[in-house]
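Lecture 7 notes: from sequence to structure.

We start with a single chain of 712 residues. Read the sequence below before looking at the structure.
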Amino acid sequence: MNELEKKIKAKIPGEDTGIEIKRSLCAICSPGCHCGLDCYVKDGQLLKVEGTLEHPYNRGKLCTKGAANRNYIYREDRIRTPLKRVGPRGEGKFEPISWDEAYGIIAEKLAAVKEKYSPHSVAFFSGYCKWYRPILHRFCYTFGSVNFGTDDSTCFKSMDIANSLTTGAPGGPNIPNTNTFLGWNYGGYYSNHLSVGPVRALKERGGKVIIIDVRYSPAAKNFADIFLQIRPGTDGALALGMGKLIIDNGWADMDYIEKHTYGFDEYKELVQNYPLDKVCEITGLNPDDVFEATKLYATNGPACTNFSASALTHRVNGLQTHRAIICLGALTGNFDRPGGNVPSFASYIHKRGGFTTREMEFREEKRPFDQLRIGETRFPTWDEYCDEFQAMDLLRQIEEGRPYPVKAIVGFGMNAKMFPETDKLVKAFDKLDFFVDADMFMTYTAKYADIVLPSCSSLERGEMKAYEGGYLAFTKPAIPPLYESKSDVDMLCELARVMDLDDDLLKAGYEACCDWMIEGNGVTVADLKASDLPVKIQTAKPVVPGAYLEKGCRTPTGKIEFYSKAIAAYDPKYGLNPLPDYVDPLFDENDPETKEKYPFHMIAGIRIPNTIHSRVHEVPWLRSLRPDPLCEINQDDAKNLGINDGDPVEVSSPYGTVRLKAMITAKLQPGVLAMAHGYTEANANVLVGRDHLDPYSGYPGFKSLRCSIRKY
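Now the structure, written as tokens:
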């Protein structure tokens, strides 16, 4: 092997090797991270990826998923051409067709549903990725349908609604300036990996860390001064008990409470129902540990709290749990202060950049108002604070056709496995006149579609992305789209032209839409594309702690609301409490017969570092890290049941059964089971009942349900 061959094998860029480094971003965890990538490319082929050192967001760091981008992109099950179903739904039999034929069929079928029923009988749904959502949202409204929905129906939105009800704003932890970090369900080693560095730096400068989790996690092992291993779903009771301790011991910031909060007296009365002995009976915690953790949080300020996007809200008491935890920051004056939780608002697609765009106006400009959305009036807080249909009511409406039929679905990255009782949802697809899905891979869901469209990856397209610190980027393709795949936004804009929708902006294309949304920020898409790195936006302003409270909260009272005026205004028939009270996370599964038959508490959907939902279970590198779906079980429970590590086990609930392998652990408490979600062969969500839902948000109780386990 000569020197040039050695350099090529080593993937060393240069004119002699023909290897270039092109800049892009990773969208596997869209939109949470979008880490910058250096893509090593030769002759249009991706050789490897590395993190971009100069990128202002990830500064060269990548997680396991990002490092596997090449393996992800070149998966064998990439959809290579538009496809038309020729077999029964779900069988996976398709024939290739042209893009023109695919567009023609889609236009014809959607027009037929619109004419026979109404435009609202077409539901538009986005799963992963999320970058194209403003375009799909506007497309839906321009078509005339009110029914735009996304996986936000089970993702971060419940937390967001709880924020809106309580403080009127999301509040991220200001770790660099804090003294105490309350890591409530903090899983930085498994997700949001870039948060680990700031917590480590806090420890190195002498700061304190409290970790609260149902599992003994790497964060608990590496960081915790105090670790509270709580029973699943009892976090709300702990938060209320901590509130009582703070008030009773004089640790509350009464000046702050008087000036910035509403409903303190009612809240104070509520927490009297949660004395320490009762809280510890509910949570399974040691009273001394709870006392010391509360004292540390309340007296070693400033203190900030980690809020997981969905871990706590994936329970039927989830929204109120999140509200109860937020109230601790209000009690101690740690909301909107340096080192506390500092409010800021999204600039573009959920990411905070310190500048404003016209994303909302872009979506809402074409919105129809002549029909109720799917699920509307069932979950009032969702209806008021989210401009999407609550997808957890989709199955019911397809089956019943009330208040009107849903006869077509336009899906982009739709994932049926995010729905409880998944098997019933895909069976209900037979009631549809038409289903089109766009995706990179032939997924479990795509097999049920009539037309399947091949999407390309983030490395094969250009997309706009906002970043914290006042940055905006518009990437360029690092490699050409593989096969006949296309960017999702190109599909939508081309389809708008084929269907002749009344929307000149959509017809003008994605870049024109982006230019419209960012107008007024001193940059254009052309300016962004001229840079290989995110561009600092002139209009961006840093968050100034205290400024939000000074102006008044975006709540009905203009204050942080212990007692929610919005919830108090809802019809009493919903039975919703304006105070963040605690209810049992299994309250709807606590009848004696169910408790006896299904004695274990299942946490379905735990994070593991090599997966994100269903996106990468079939990536060979990542699948090799956990090739088999596993059910974690406490070592004592396993011994009592005669289950050994690696044994095949059957996990059942009142709604379904999955088979997988046992993973014996000391990190879970007795009586608790845990499993990752997303595996097609062991889909955790078939165990979840369709009505096991949070009455406030409509979120499923993925992480608190009754199950049994046996060796088979």
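The first helix runs from residue 3 to 9. Keep this in mind for problem set 3.
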